[in-house]
């Protein structure tokens, strides 16, 4: 499939639903070790994406990912706005001349995650969204390399996201607002790691449903 037609509105509404369903919890997570605005920043970005659903449906993958990244970058505030924006803009660049399928997507996603690492000057284990995104990228890359069936890879991706998100609880934050708390950040899950996990799981579930739905 070369166009995002049909898929984007379904994916965006699934993401909006899961974020809305967990909004209070995420607000509390960011309130305890940040400033409490993470979910509203993200909801603003997602609302802006919903408004351009029609346009996205007409675009090929690379320009659609670019448009998503630019929209998140301008509509969201906070550290997460520029980081999620960077993820999609870099994925757009990595998608040029490539078909987005299970063979190519892991490398495309991994390039996006590498750009987030550079932008945030952060690595694994610093209690950020990267503690979800890096394990997800690694799981996808390893499953594609080992020719794991797509459905199994999607379930592995969900497990990697959940494990990554949970791993932030024991970490000391060394990046972002939570780093101001130092050791006192231990014992709390990072808000960006949680929303990243929720979004990854929502996308994987839509794709899994698509695999089992009658045609
Ligand atoms: P702000 O911290 O500016 O209020 P948000 O609340 O929207 O922005 O986003 C906070 C989230 O952004 C954190 O929970 C963390 O996951 C992520 N984050 C913050 N700084 C960095 C960084 N340098 N690298 C990666 N992720 C980061
Ligand atoms: Mg915040």
Walkthrough of the structure:
With 215 residues, this protein is mainly alpha-helical. It has a single domain, classed as Serine Threonine Protein Phosphatase 5, Tetratricopeptide repeat (Alpha Horseshoe). The chain contains ten helices and no strands. Helix 3 crosses helix 5. The two termini are 16 Å apart. The site of adenosine-5'-diphosphate has 23 residues, from helix 3, helix 6 and helix 10. InterPro entries: DhaK_L_YcgS (IPR012737), DhaL_dom (IPR004007), DhaL_dom_sf (IPR036117), Dihydroxyacetone_Kinase (IPR050861). GO terms for molecular function: glycerone kinase activity. Pfam families: Dak2. This is DhaL domain-containing protein.
Task: Describe the secondary structure blueprint for this structure.
Layout: H1 7-21, H2 23-33, H3 38-51, H4 53-58, H5 61-75, H6 78-95, H7 105-120, H8 130-145, H9 150-167, H10 191-212
Helix pairs in contact: 1-3, 1-10, 2-10, 3-5, 5-6, 6-7, 7-8, 8-9, 8-10, 9-10
The chain binds adenosine-5'-diphosphate and magnesium ion (MG).
